[in-house]
Amino acid sequence: MYSMVFITVGNEDEAKRIAKKLLEERLAACVNIIKDVKSYFLWKGEIDKAEEYLLIIKTIANKVNDIIKRVKEIHSYQVPEIIWINLSGGSEDYLNWINEELR
């Protein structure tokens, strides 16, 4: 099974650092970095906001827990957003490529 993991970070340098680390450690086959994400959220009972970058990580499901552990070790946020969804499908060629890269 395949998964996509979504992680927000506070700046481009951190986004690139986390993406590179996950790729080097073969926890991810691909990481997209999307800039100019405007986040509004509750923090300690108050409405807060931040301009962030969003990482979209393509991986296999059995690597998600390792991604979570690694990101918590290197992320600058006290409570980083790390959420994932399991994929029910996708291009067979693309999914095969993910498998090959994460062997």
Structure description:
The chain is of the alpha+beta class and 103 residues long. Helix content is 33%, strand content 42%. It contains 3 helices and 4 strands. The protein has helices at 12-24, 64-74, 92-101; strands at residues 2-9, 30-43, 46-60, 82-87. The protein has a 4-stranded antiparallel β-sheet with strand order 2-3-1-4. It is elongated, with a radius of gyration of 14 Å. The two termini are 14 Å apart. The mean pLDDT is 97.
List keywords for this structure.
103 residues, Alpha-Beta Plaits, 3 helices, elongated, copper ion binding, N-reg_PII-like_a/b, N-reg_PII/ATP_PRibTrfase_C, Ion_tolerance_CutA, Divalent-cation tolerance protein CutA
- Judged by helices, strands and strand pairing, the structural class is alpha+beta
CATH architecture: 2-Layer Sandwich
Overall pLDDT, averaged? 97
Spatial extent as radius of gyration:
14 Å
**Main beta sheet strand tally, sense and closure:** 4 strands, antiparallel
In the sheet with the most strands, the strands line up as 2-3-1-4
N-to-C span: 14 Å
